[in-house]
Amino acid sequence: MTESIQDDTEIRIQRESLVEQVADMDPHLADLIIERESLTSIKNEELRAAIGRVMYTNSAVPVLMGTSYKNVGVQPLLDAIITYIYT
Known about the structure:
- This protein is mostly helical.
- It is 68% helix and 0% strand.
- The chain has helices at 2-25, 27-36, 44-56, 74-85.
- The longest helix is centred in the first third of the chain and has 24 residues, at 2-25.
């Protein structure tokens, strides 16, 4: 049980770090954080949209890892293309 709680805490810390880094490049997301006074109040859809805007302006490029060997990571790559490019 304790290990699960530690994993959840680490996930929250990493997500907040991601939100903060994207907000440094996307003024709209930064405004939402300031307005709500919290990094944790950002919804997944808002974060995805912000990542799409950051990519569109060539401010950042997401990196995905995978291999065509046994199709490991191919589906997440295709999902990311649809999610971030076609927003």
